[in-house]
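Supplementary Methods, section 5.1.

A reviewer requested that the exact input to the structure prediction be made available. We therefore reproduce it here, unchanged from the version used in the analyses.
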Amino acid sequence: DAARGERRPGIRIARGVLLRSLALGVSGKADVVEFRPEPFPVEYKRGAPKAHRADEVQLCAQAMLMEEEFGKPVPRGYQFSAGSRERVAVEFTESLRQKTRDAISRCRELE
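The structure derived from this sequence is encoded cell-by-cell as follows.
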C-alpha cells in the first residue's frame, strides 16, 4: 500500500506502490518509489547482480508505468543489492525502454 512510507527532509518514500499502464497493458508493484521531488523507482534485490539485464528491464517497466500514472518523466531508477549493500543508478535509455517494450510484447504473446 502506497500509504506505507516515510518522510525525510526533501524526500518522500512510498513502499509497495501499485502501478498500471493502460498503454502497455501491464500492472505491477514497485518495492519503493522515492520522490525528491521527481519520482523514481528503487528495486531491492537479495542476491548479487545478474549477468543478464532482466533486473534493469523490470526497473524500467516500473518507470514506464510510473510515467503514465504520475504524468512525469522518470529518467532513472536505482537497484539496491542487499548482499553488497550497494545502490546502483540505472539510466532509462531509449535502448533499454525498447528492450522493455519488447519483453512486454513477448510476455503478452504467451497468453
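Helices lie at 54-70, 94-109. These observations are discussed further in the main text.
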